[in-house]
Structures are given as structure tokens and as C-alpha cells.
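Researcher: Here's a chain I'd like modeled. Treat it as a single chain, no partners, no ligands.
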Amino acid sequence: MNNLPSKFDPSEGHKAENVSMMYFGKLKVHPLAAYTVLGTLTIILFILFSYLGLSYRVPQQISMLSGRNTKEPVFAPERSRETANLISKLKYYGLWNFPVPEEVPPFFIKSYPADLNTVQDISVKKKIFINSLLPHALFVRQEALQRRAKLESILSKIDCTVGSLDFGNELEDENQCPWTDFLKEEDVNFIQNLSKNYRTTSAETLLERVDAVPTSIILAQGALESSWGSSRFTREGNSIFGMWTWKTRGIVPSRRDEGKTHKVKVYESILDSVRAYHLTLNRLDPYEEFRHLRTNTDDPLIIAEGLKLYSERGEDYVEDIKKVIISNDLQRYDSYRLIDLDLPELTLPFSGDIKLAEPGKAPL
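Model: Modeled as a single isolated chain. C-alpha cells:
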């Protein structure tokens, strides 16, 4: 609708005749000028309120994704099935190029995109995989370190040497430390649940098992086992680390030897996959050497020597882990930590072309 007076001619540079003037207090104003000012103010106010509304919603989004004051992370609201969309989200949440070195925003995804295996640019594929998996790895490490801190706190309350302390139920032996006498019921329950989950009642063994796997090793093994997030097992079952199962639902390997009955385990989310892998390294007997090395050094290249039994390839597999760590500079992530951040300034969604190719394994 035209809001100008019917007798106003826009082509004229002077006031038309018989135009009713508008008054603001003692100020007499031409209607066109008043409408122009009001329209401009309306546009400015609309932009301002839109910006304020976005500024309010954005921190609210990141607070929902934050790991602070919550036992479980809140996943991103949408399950992205397109690589370009995931890249946009990584940029949006500050995970494409970290705004602050070593500080990782808490952004979690359920699954990798189904078309990740078609990305031809290997550097892009690697960045998507590493930067997406990193928050999950750091979160699981944080859980383990919190459990360890609580275990150490409880042990400090027990007036017995750690080497002789056993959390088994049988306390009839007079030489057995009556550890429950030193603790509150909630601490006793914590110890019992921890012993069950890590499959040992020895305090000394618990201290060796309840610990965090180096971030660089998590990323390297994930890359090897999932072909940088593009393997069939990863795409169909969130199985980042290719772990087997004989009991639960799983994916039958296409090249499974005749007579074998194992399947590749399926997980509800990437986080579940990382948790299961992390617990496996921390409690199963084949990785005792891995845990022993971890107690004596922080060097992931040395700790990786304890993973010979993770694959039938043995030493060659360990060498591949080391190559992935070194060639991709994964050790730098060992000092990274998961934090709470306000969202960075919004960046434009990813607009570059992603080159597609036939599925294939990425180089180390």
C-alpha cells in the first residue's frame, strides 16, 4: 500500500499544495518526512531486536551442549547426514579452527555423515574426523580422570597399604584390611561398582586400570579402525574402533573366515563407541602391558607398544598407530581440554566444493 498523500508527486522537489502538515509538539513536519523517519526507525529496531534475539539464543544453545554440571553431554539437536552440513556445524561451534589453542568446545554428534566416505580431499576428511571425534575423546577421558580422583580420595581415607588392600567381600581373614570400617556407605558402593566395572577387587590394580587413554592414541586408533570415519562399520553402526562381539547385535564382516561367529558391535552413538573402547583398554588382560607402560610414561609412542594384541597384525599394527600419530601431529591434542565457551562470532557456512570419489581408504 502507498502511504504517501494522494496529491504528492515524488518527481517534484518542493511541497505540493493542500498537503496537511503533521505536528510533533510545536514542531511542524511534512508527512513524507515523518513517514521516512518512522520507517527508518522501524527497520533499525527490527535489526536490533533480531540481533539481540540471536545473541540470546546462541549462548542458550551452547549451554545445552556444555558438559558442565551434567553427567551426560547433550547431543546436537539434529543428526547430520551430510558432510557439508557437518562442516558448517563444526565451524559454527568453533571446532573447525579452534578460537583458543587447546580449548575445545563441547559439541557432540550422534554419527558421522553417510557420505563421508565419498570425500576425495583427504585433508578435509581427516579434519572432519579428528575435529568431530575430539570432544567425545576428551569427554570420556574427563569421566575416567574424575573416577580416578574419587578413587584416590577414598583410598586416602583407608588406613591400610594399597598393596595389601582388596575390596573382595570376604573379610574373615584377620590379615585382611577392614576397609569398609573407614568409609561411608556411598563410598563403599562406589568402590564396589568400580571393582565390578573394571573387573578387579585389588586396589593396586584398580589404580592402574582407572585412568585415561592418551587423546592422540584414541584419535589414531579411531582413524585406523574406521578409515577416518568412512568405514562401513562406522557408517552403519557407529563402530569407530571395530570391536567384536559374540553376544549382542552387530554387523557381520563381509570377509569373516569360515567357521567364525563374531560380529562388529553396534553402538547408539559415537560417544558410546568411545566409552566402550576406552573401558576395553582399561580392564581386559590383553592390554595389561599398555596400562603398565601408561603408569611409567606420558609418551603415547611408548604407550602404544602395549597395543600389539589389539590386532592380529601385532607389531605392524603398533607401527601404524605411531605413523598416524606422527604424520598427523596428533600429540598436540594430548594437552587439549574440553571446556565451556560462549559461541564465537558466527562464521559463514562452509561454501567450498567437496570433491567426491569412489569410497576408499585414506592414507595414514
